[in-house]
Amino acid sequence: MWNKRIHPKTNREIDTFSLITTEANPLSASIHNGGNNAGRMPLILSVEDEEKWLDPYLDKQVIKSLFKTPADNNMEAYKVTPDFRFIDPHNSDIIKKVA
Length: 99
Hints:
This protein is about 20% helix and about 20% strand.
């Protein structure tokens, strides 16, 4: 969800957003870096669920039903080199597909 709010100390308008997460699928779990949200991944809606999600009158139970771990059979993972900022962005050595 994207929104604007007024910063309480500076009184300036700032852009904010929320990211909904769900339990990680096997692919995401294998590359997660740990921390407070280990085993979590962003919620990815199926094409079939997109219209439901955009319905402003969506029932709470239907919303909850959309919070499911996506299958990883349509996903790919890539490892990005730690010094990617110092390498030519067109250099193919920056990313490597995770097997």
